[in-house]
Amino acid sequence: MNFATSNTRPISFMRLLVTLRWLAVVGQAITVALAVGPLGVALPLVPLGAGISALGAFNVYAAWRSRRAPDPSSSELFAHALVDIGLLTWMIAWSGGIENPFSSLFLLPLALSILTLPARWVWATALASVAGYCISAVLGRELPHVHGLMNDAFSLHKLGMLVNFLISAVVILIFFARMAAAGRHNQRELARLQEQFARNEGIVSLATHAASVAHELNTPLGTLTLMVDDLVEDAASPREREDFATIKALLQVCRDRVRELAAPADSLADGRPAASVDLERVIERWQLIRPAIELRRSGSVKGYGKVDPAVGHLLQVLLNNAADAGEQGGLPRVDLQLSVEGDRLRGEIRDYGVGFEKAQPVLPGTLFKTSKPDGLGIGLALSHATVERLGGELSMQSTVEGRGVRVAFSLPVAAAIRS
Q: Which of the listed residues 151, 182, 208 is the one where a domain comes to its end?
């Protein structure tokens, strides 16, 4: 297992090490002061003071380095571990060697390396820790006779073991709790990316099929348009001529939509950007297709040019969903609000349907599911994918004042509107 791919090695980890090292500096200074003072242990103050000072000086460098190195390498982290092990060996050797109850602290650098370094560096850290322990055991200076508050060496050793346990518990609580939180965050992020990948896979497959079908439908729709032209000329009455003209207009809308479906694929093949669309024209065309729906508008985006084709598709999908909900609820009405506020294009569509069931999620996480009897279940999925691709936000909520649902979207003007 290669730990180098873990997200627990960024600059925050370096700063956490700096914090732990400052705690070690303060803890060692207090321990030496207590041992020499109240406990009456004759320790060599000069070597121990030099070790504490060296650790503090190195930590000043480490703090400076943690602000300049956004992603420290494994070799640099290992070098930090070597410094910590070396200074710990120095401190233990001058304060009793293997008799020192704090000698088990050699395990902490090894535990930290397991969570942050690749396997080969973990083994190197383990060898360094073992070497430091052996050196302190072989060359360590024995503790002198105790003549203070603790009248025997064993009592002093037990006190040191207690303090050592408390220090280890604090380190584990701070560091490993932080690592566990980072691991849970990574799992949630991975689940989100997997869900996004599955949704995008389905949408890409759908888009590919739609482009293929669009090319196939273009010819029969053109033929039907010519046939309707003949029917308009041969109409026996003004009523028939009006009906055939309406059919022709609807066929033209269908042809325009088919061309728009095929346009992104054709533009991609030619290396050209997809043609922009007029949002007002999109709304007018939608009203032609859904004449039975009462559309109430507020706000305006006039004067801001045309929009990305994806914004037109998004608006049509949301309007159709709202219209279908209103028809099912017996009130075929849709409220549409569009405006440009600062650098954001904002829109809100309100339907007058029955609203959400209590058990129904506001934004379904599963693709291609629908509550409509004849629905395909792709409207919300396409809308969410469009908003996500353009760097915007999509939200849904039940209305406070009555029936229906409000769907709001917010898109960056730079991504949505073209001059």
A: 151
